[in-house]
Design a protein that fits this description.
The protein has six helices and ten strands. It is an alpha/beta fold and about 230 residues long. The protein has a single domain, classed as Dihydrofolate Reductase, subunit A, CATH 3.40.430. Strands 1-9-10-8-2-7-3-4-5-6 form a ten-stranded mixed β-sheet, with helices on both faces. The radius of gyration is 18 Å and the shape is globular.
Length: about 230
């Protein structure tokens, strides 16, 4: 993997064969709290492949950076629907599920105590079930009818979860952007075309968000961009 733009490399120098430590330095948050979102897509804009899963389109370069960013965070934030579709299990970081309905995927109902938190709202149909499964202290009620994502970020920071790594899905990314709580978007473009009807990395009502390119890495045609939200 090589660094094309940005990061701790002198101007005009392309650093090839980056170590894990050097990649982590490229993505170092400038402050805390910090919320980054990590997404992957094809050249023709598909955010999922066969079966509606990102695993059908990602590759070793994307997986390497994804894992490094996961290990650098305090907590992983993901939509409950994405967690269900991608078959999430308990991770080595707290997993924060976001669900307006209070849904907890079956694979996570028996996760170790405290390893899964739920960000939901007071009107959630599954609120009582979630509290029973996860423990009341691990269910964050943030708003009446919708999940207040700014409040989620604040409450997680108050628990010491200050560096957040969100893995989408597309609807959650759109909502996080609309709420103004995203600091960074890490977007991988894999060198593939798949056509067909597929979701983009964002989905839902329109938002207007300006980005600045902070770094660009490349490996075998895969482009990994670090975008900062202006």
């Amino acid at each position: 993997m090589r660094l094309l733009i940005g990061g701790p490399v002198p101007d005009g120098v392309i650093d090839d064969g980056l170590t894990d430590e050097e990649i982590r330095a490229v993505y170092e948050p400038p402050r805390q709290p910090w919320l980054r979102v990590n997404m992957v897509g094809t050249v023709d804009g598909a955010a999922t492949g066969e079966g509606g899963k990102t695993g059908a389109i990602n590759n070793p370069a994307d997986h390497r950076v994804f894992q490094l960013l996961r290990r650098a965070c305090d907590a992983i934030v993901v939509g409950a629907g994405t967690a269900r579709a991608e078959g999430y299990g308990a991770a080595d970081r707290p997993l924060v599920l976001v669900s307006r309905r209070g849904d907890v995927p079956d694979r996570l109902l028996d996760a170790p105590a405290g390893s899964v938190l739920l960000a939901t709202c007071a009107a959630a149909a599954g609120l009582a079930t979630a509290r029973s499964a996860l423990g009341a202290d691990n269910v964050l009620v943030l708003g009446e009818d919708t999940v207040d994502l700014a409040m989620m970020r604040s409450q997680l920071a108050s628990r010491g979860l200050r560096t957040l790594h969100s893995e989408g899905g597309p609807h959650l990314l759109r909502d996080l952007l609309a709420a103004g709580v995203v600091d960074e978007l890490d977007a991988t473009v894999v060198p593939r075309l798949i056509a067909g009807l597929h979701t983009r990395i964002t989905a839902g009502d329109g938002v207007a968000v300006q980005l600045s390119l902070a770094a660009l890495l490349e490996e075998d045609g895969t482009l990994l961009a670090r975008w900062l939200v202006d």
